[in-house]
Amino acid sequence: MQLDSTHIAKASIKIAITSSREDEQRVIKELNKEGIKAVAVDIGGNLIQSIPKVIERALVASRRSGVIKECHVHDGAVVGAAREAIMQVASKANGMNVGGKIGITRHKEHVSVCIFMSMGLLHLNDVVVGLCHRSIPDIY
């Protein structure tokens, strides 16, 4: 089966919405069987103040897990997609505390980053999702 950008985006959403480490590991194993590399990163706090840290955590996790190689082309794809996904949710999360997860997936040239977060005050939470895709040459 040919996996395209839609499949990889769905996979990043699937890993970002996992609710436990056990569930996360199960989904990663399922995706690996399909040839999709995946990793998830927990995030929390004031989103706007922690944007650089969130992007850094996404990049480090992607490298350590083998989702990407350590080269500027791959780094740029993950950083760019993570930044774009954050910008999609930033206006809604401005000034609020958030908690959630980033899901990062890759298959050949397709890289997808999904941010799934709960945000708000006390028990009055809202949910927000940001999703971005990047393409990298499969020769790297």
From TrEMBL:
* Name assigned to this protein: Hut operon positive regulatory protein
The record's section on InterPro entries has: Regulatory_HutP, Regulatory_HutP_sf
- Which keywords accompany this UniProt record? Activator, RNA-binding, Transcription, Transcription regulation
CDD domains hit by this protein: HutP
Q: How does it assemble?
A: Homohexamer.
Gene3D superfamilies from the xrefs? Hut operon regulatory protein HutP (3.40.1510.10)
User: Belongs to which family?
Assistant: Belongs to the HutP family.
**General function of this protein:** Antiterminator that binds to cis-acting regulatory sequences on the mRNA in the presence of histidine, thereby suppressing transcription termination and activating the hut operon for histidine utilization.
